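Cast an eye over this sequence plus tokens and walk me through the fold:

***
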Amino acid sequence: MIPGGQLMFTTEVENYPGFPEGVTGMQMMADFREQAVRFETRVITEDVTEVDFSVRPFLLTTSGGTEIESDTVIIATGANAKWIGLDNEERLAQSGGGVSACAVCDGALPHFRNQVIAIVGGGDTAMEDALYMAKFAKEVVVVHRRDTLRASNIMRDRAFAEEKIRFEWNQNVVDVLGDDVITAVRLKDTVTGEERELEVGGLFVAIGHDPNTGFLGGQVALKDNGFVETATSWRTATSIPGVFAAGDVMDDFYKQAVTAAGTGCMAALEAERWLAEGGHGDSGAQADSAQAESESA
């Protein structure tokens, strides 16, 4: 991931409150950062590669070798795109052979212009990728394993209205063809089992994400799908006291920018109150007192 996460690869964000005309994901992240810095937030642009939650204070090690001690930690590392899992898909993705998991990142490259482009997936990301690629491609083919989309109504309607986009329903991509560059994908009908080839000049995979939790080294309880497990529903505390989680690294259901921001607020409040209870401040105690007074009133 890069600083700013998945929204750095998103063109237009139109479902976040406060932006009636929409906003680009990159601009939104720049604004978020600027707002945080205005409140004297210190920003270190490095990846945390290792954590030790067995010691107090917690010890974090960054990609630059910096060691950071902290009384509390909020994990907000997001998630990365999933791949289909085909050998040729991986090979061509790594060699720049026309296979990618980020249309916004790579779709404007000359290789993809005026080509037939395949998009795999049925959610909002797939629809956004398809609409984005319609600007450059001769035709965009959305390949989906079901006969209905998971995408939101607005994204679905936009994709249906775009004349360059067509849909291949009930189809799985079972192989990616091509030596140096992609030339076709092999599709398998999920109903009949029939296989056939679809000639394409590019493939973008938009089938979901894996949470970025590997650096935790198994020290925090995870769900079966790898997302951070919170001890109580609608709370952000993890299995380690003093460690909280927010955003897509713990959310395997909503996966929206506004809900990620909401859980970020929740995690910050819980961390503050946890510190207060441990004698590191009084904000949480004041908040609890205010809540108690409100409830009694």
Observations:
- Residues 281-297 have pLDDT under 50 and may be disordered.
- The helical segments are 25-38, 87-95, 103-106, 124-133, 153-161, 257-277, 283-296.
- Residues 83-207 form a domain with the FAD/NAD(P)-binding domain fold (CATH 3.50.50.60).
- The first helix runs from residue 25 to 38.
